[in-house]
Amino acid sequence: MHLHWSFVWASLLAASALEAQARTWDEAYALATSTVSQMTLDEKLGIAIGTGQLNSNRRCVGDTTAVARLGIPSICFQDGPAGLRLVKNVTGFPAGLNVAATFSRRLMRARGKAFGEEWRGKGAHVFLGPSLDIMRNPKAGRAWEAFGPDPYLTGEAGYETVIGVQSVGVQACAKHLIANNQEHWRYGYTSNVDDRTLQELYYYPFIRTIEAGVTSVMCAYNRFNGTSSCHNANLIGPNGLLQKSGFKGYVVSDWGATHDSAAENANNGLDMEQPGDYIVIGGGVYGFNNLKNAVNNGSVPQARINEMITRILAPWYQLGQDKDYPPTNFDAQKRDGSGSKNLRVNVRTNEHTALAREIASASAVLLKNSRSTTTGTPSGITTRGLPVAKNRIKTIAVVGQDAKLPNLNCNELNECNDGTMSVGWGSGSNSLEFLIPPIDAITSFTGSSATITSSLSNDLDEGAKAAKGKDVAYVFVNAMSGELGSYTFVVGNQGDRNDLDLWWKGGSLVERVAAVCNNTIVIVHSVGPVNMSWSAHPNITGIIYAGAPGEQTGPSIVDVIYGNYNPAGKLPFSIADSEDAYGTAIVYNSLGFPEINYTEKLLLDYRYMDSKNIKPRFEFGFGLSYTTFAYSGLSVQKSGSSYTVSFTVANTGAFAGAEKPQLYLAYPATAGEPKKVLRGFEEIILQPGASSTVTLTLNERDMSVWDVPSQKYVRSSGTFNVLVGASSLDIRLQSSITV
C-alpha cells in the first residue's frame, strides 16, 4: 500500500509540474513571435525543412535543425500510433482498432498518456499519431492504425488520445489529412468526396482532435478532389478547413508527400516538409534551396515564412517543451556495435505493461459462447465453452502458427507474418521486443494442471491430429495488412489485403479442428473483419476476436479465456458474409493514378448495411460477456440546446463485468442521414446484481447535419428517434425527440 500511494503521489506531482509548465496559446504565440524575430533566414529554414531521409546524423524518424543560440533543439518526430518504433526498451501497445473496441474513453486516454510518457522519456517531441483514417473498406491496409469506419467513435478515440499524449507535454500529430483510405496507388490517387460527406464523416474526427488542442496535423500522400493534400488550400490554406475549425498548430507533410513548387506549398498552408529531401515518391520541395530562393525572390513572402516558423514553435512553447524537456536519447537510424538499438533509457514501466495487458483484454470481443456447466445454470462450473475452468481441463491442444513467437529479426517495418500477429506492418508497427506469444502464456498459466499438445503451424493434418479428442482445442488464426511503403509484398498482399479470408488457410484449419474436437475455441488476431463462414459449427464453442493486441497478446488472451478478465469488447466494425456487404472497394488496378469517387457518401459499414437491409454475421457494436445485462428506465430531457439521455443498466448474471451501452440517433427522414448513427457510448462496470444509471448528452451538433450552402452544421427539424442498446442491431430502449 505504501509503494502504491508513493507512485500515485509521484504521478500527481509530475502532472502538476507539467501543468505549471504549460502555457495558453496566446502566451505561446507571443514567445514564438519574439523568437522568430531574432532568427536568420537559414535558421528559419532549418525548422521548416527536415534534415533529410539520407542524413546519417538524423536521430529520429524526422528531425529539424537546432538553433542552439536561441535554445531551440532539433525537434524529434517519432512513429508510431501503437508505440515507439525503432527504439528499444519501450512498450508495444495494442493498435488503434483495439482501443476502439474497448468503447472506453478511460482506456483511450490512459493509452495516450502512456504514449506521452514514453515519448517524453526518450526525448521525442512529437508523437506521430493518432491516425484518424476512416475504415472506408475493411481491406484497407492501415485501417488497424486508426479506429474503424464510424466517425463518432473515431473522433472520441482521437480526442482522448490527444488529451492523454499532450497532458505530459508531448505534441500529438493527427493524420492523415484527408480521405487517405487505401494503400494501392496511395502516392497519387485522388479521393473525390462531396462537401457534406467530408464534413460529417472524414473530417469530423479531425475536428474532435482540434477541440482537444492537437498541436500538429499531417497532410496525406493522396490528392483530395484533384489537388495534392499538402498544397491543398481548401484543406490547409489560410481559409481552409483547419483554420476555419480553429486549428492553432502547424501542418507537416507525410514523408515525401510534397509535390510542385516551394511557393505552391508554402503559400497554400504547408508549414513543415519532412523528411526534407527527395525520396523517389516525392519530397524535396523545400530543400535544395528551393524554399530559400522562393523567399528571396518574393514568391513566398517574409510574412509567410515567419508565420510558418511561429506556428511550429508555438506548440513547443505551449506544452512547455522549452523547460526541462529530456534530450533525445536514442538513435532510430543507426545501430551500435552490438547490432541492437540504443539502450540508454528504459521507459517501460510496470504500469504501462499492465495497461497494455488491460487494453488487450478489454478489446477482446467475445463473438460466440456455447457454454455448458456442471449444474446447467450460469453459476455452474464450465464444462464446454468459456470461461474455461482450469482445474477441469486435463488435455489441451494449441493449434496454429499464430500461437507462436514471430520472427523477431524480420525487418524494421515488421513485414512478416510467421507467428502470432500482434500488430500490422509499416510505420504504424511497434516493438516486438517484449512480446509474449499465446503458447508461452497458456503453458505458463496451466502449469502441471493439464497436458498440452501443440501444432504451431497451419498444417491441416497436424492440427487435426493434435486436437483430436482433447478436452479443449485453442485454434489461433490471423489476417494481417500494413503500409504500402516500398511496394513490398507480405504473403502476397501489398499493403491492402487481397480479400477477407484468414491467412495460411486459417478457415480450413478451424474446420478441421472442429471436426475432431467438440470444445473448439477460436482466437482471431486480425486487422479488421474476416470471413467467418465456420462460426455456426456446433463444435465451435467459443470465438474471440482479439484484433492486434500488442506485446501482451499471450497474457491478455489467457486472462479472457480463463475468466480472470470478463470480455467486454465491442466490434468497432461489422463482420459480414461477403465483401459486397460493405458497399466499397479497393482500387487495385489502374492505368495511372486512379480517381476514387466516394459515391457511397455517408453509408459505410453498418450504415450501408442498414440501408440495404443486410444483416451481418456480427454487427457493429456487438460483443458478448460472461454475464448478462438488462436495460431499463429510458428518460430524455431537454437541457438548453442539448438533450440528456438517462437509463439504467443492471448486471443480471453471475459474473462481475463491464457493459458498453451505445446511443444511436435516427434523424427525421428529411435530413438525408443514414437510418441510424452512433452518438454516444459509456463504460459501466458492475458486480452481479448491481445496477447503475447511465447519463449521455446529445449536443446540438450531434443532432445537426452539414449544410453546404451556409457552410455550417444546422439542426434538423422533425422527430428524432433515440435508440439505446448493446449493439447497432440490439436496441433495448427507444424514445423520441421532436424539434
UniProtKB/TrEMBL annotation:
SUPFAM superfamilies: (Trans)glycosidases, Beta-D-glucan exohydrolase, C-terminal domain. Residues 1-22 form the signal peptide. It catalyses: Hydrolysis of terminal, non-reducing beta-D-glucosyl residues with release of beta-D-glucose. Keywords: Carbohydrate metabolism, Cellulose degradation, Glycoprotein, Glycosidase, Hydrolase, Polysaccharide degradation, Signal. InterPro entries: Cellulose_deg_GH3 (IPR050288), Fn3-like (IPR026891), GH (IPR017853), Glyco_hydro_3_C (IPR002772), Glyco_hydro_3_C_sf (IPR036881), Glyco_hydro_3_N (IPR001764), Glyco_hydro_3_N_sf (IPR036962), Ig-like_fold (IPR013783). It is an enzyme of class 3 (hydrolase). Pfam families: Fn3-like, Glyco_hydro_3, Glyco_hydro_3_C. It comes from the Eukaryota. GO terms for biological process: cellulose catabolic process. The keyword Transport does not apply. Its EC number is 3.2.1.21. Pathway: Glycan metabolism; cellulose degradation. Residues 659-728 form the Fibronectin type III-like domain. GO terms for molecular function: beta-glucosidase activity. Belongs to the glycosyl hydrolase 3 family. This is beta-glucosidase. It comes from Ephemerocybe angulata. The lineage of its organism: Eukaryota, Fungi, Dikarya, Basidiomycota, Agaricomycotina.
